Amino acid sequence: MIDAIHRFHGRGSLRFVYQHGKTVRCPHAALKYSPNQRRRTYRVAVVVSRKVHKSAVVRNRIRRRLYELVRAHDAAITQPYDLVFTAFSDQLATMPAPELEALLAKLLSSAGIIPAPSPAHTSQDHDIVDAKEHA
């Protein structure tokens, strides 16, 4: 779970992001973000509506998965931002972890919050495998 320092407290703080923030979208989720110079670190919230899935278990699974991926990118988020992820699809609950991580990284890099991810695999990554195949 994400630390308490990185969580929103109360709906008033979310209201500012909804009114003044910018939005980056993908088919499954959206990121609404706003710089917050009054804080030293980022805050994040994940919103999953009952319209996404009827079951609270599935909605909480989506929330936990997104919080964990944001926590994994903690070191890359260097500026104080207020981030609100809104889930549109229940597919986020069953999506493979690498695909979900790529989706989150794409949203964060499109917003300019983290640097763009480098290509996952290059031909140099497989030198050992290629050497064994040719031997």
The tally of beta strands, per DSSP, is 4
Our measurement of the CA-to-CA distance between the termini, rounded to an integer number of angstroms, reads: 47 Å
**Distinct helical segment count:** 4
Fraction of residues in helices? 25-40%
Mean of the pLDDT scores?
86
Rg from alpha-carbon coordinates: 17 Å
Second CATH tier, the architecture: 2-Layer Sandwich
Count of individual domains: 1
Quaternary structure type: single chain
Task: Provide the spatial order of strands within the biggest beta sheet.
Answer: 1-2-4-3
Order of SSEs, N→C?
HEEEHEHH
**Shape label:** globular
CATH class: Alpha Beta
Can you summarize the main beta sheet?
A: 4 strands, mixed
Task: Return the CATH topology.
Answer: Ribosomal Protein S5, domain 2
Detail the poorly predicted runs: none
Task: Report the sheet-strand fraction.
Answer: 15-25%
Given helix and strand content, the structural type is alpha+beta
